[in-house]
Amino acid sequence: MPLVEFHSVVCLLGTFPALAGVDLQVEPLDVLLLEGPNGAGKTTLLRLMAGLIPPHSGEARVFGVDLFKDRRSARHRLALVGHETYCYDDLTVMENLQFTFKASALTGTGISEVLERTGLGALAAVRHAHLSAGQRRRLALANALVRDPELLLLDEPHAGLDEEGRACLHEIISSAPSEGRTVVLASHELELSRQLASREVRVQSGTIVDCARENL
Q1: What region does 56 belong to: left with phi over 0, alpha with psi -120 to 50, or beta?
Q2: Is 215 a domain residue?
Q3: Helix H segments across 79-196?
Q4: Backbone angles phi, psi at 53, to 5 degrees
Q5: What is the tens place of the pLDDT at every residue in 109-156?
Q6: Bridge partners of 214?
Q7: What CATH number has the domain bearing residue 67?
Q8: Which of 105-109, 170-174, 202-206, 209-213 has the lowest mean pLDDT?
Q9: Residue 111 pairs with which residues in a beta bridge?
């Protein structure tokens, strides 16, 4: 069963059709790149997958769940890293991750591993407010990983990252299929993102206009 299955999906932002009849399937263990110009609908597509905005018409399922009937039940199985970190300024890196860990009712010792993978171990005691923009982006990614999502949604993940941060990001995306994780990323950094993606689609004017590219 596809993790994401959209048929003729329309999504309105106010009265504007941000998605205007999208047909898309995301298979388990895909690393799917969404490319296209600004305003094409890439962010809206990710937010729809995450259940943050409702579809208007068509057929839309994530993990087999009909998004017209239920946009919440699949959220614990996915994570979206967008332009905002949604971390607490007055909490440290470690405290932000611990909050997410407890709020997600997770068990285990995943925080230490996530700190190491995102290169934030030395910053564990630093408050979010004192982090650089790139460090904040890495913490947002760490917050997503500590939930151990089956589907990881990334919106312009290279933005604001330095060389170390990009190396951490690439390791996480490259390792995702072997860890049982599917990734969908929207990016303008095509030279970097195409090295990581197994498949690529072009989004333009709220529709998918090209599904032909596969990176084997």
Answers
A1: alpha
A2: no
A3: 93-103, 110-117, 133-145, 163-175, 190-193
A4: -135, 150
A5: 589 999 999 999 999 999 999 999 999 999 999 999 999 999 999 999
A6: 199
A7: 3.40.50.300
A8: 105-109
A9: none
Answer whether residue 167 is part of any domain: yes
d(CA 105, CA 99): 10
Q: Domain limits at 183?
A: 4-210
User: Does the predicted TM-score (pTM) go above 0.90?
Assistant: yes
pLDDT tops 60 at residue 108? no
| Residue whose entry in the numeric block shows the structure tokens 């312009």 | 156
Q: Is 175 helix (H, G, I), strand (E, B) or coil?
A: helix
Asked if 124 and 93 touch (Cβ cutoff 8 Å), the reply is yes
Residue 214, pLDDT > 70, answer: no
* 173/152 Cα distance (integer angstroms): 9
pLDDT at 215 over 60: no
In the chain, how many domains are there? Answer: 1
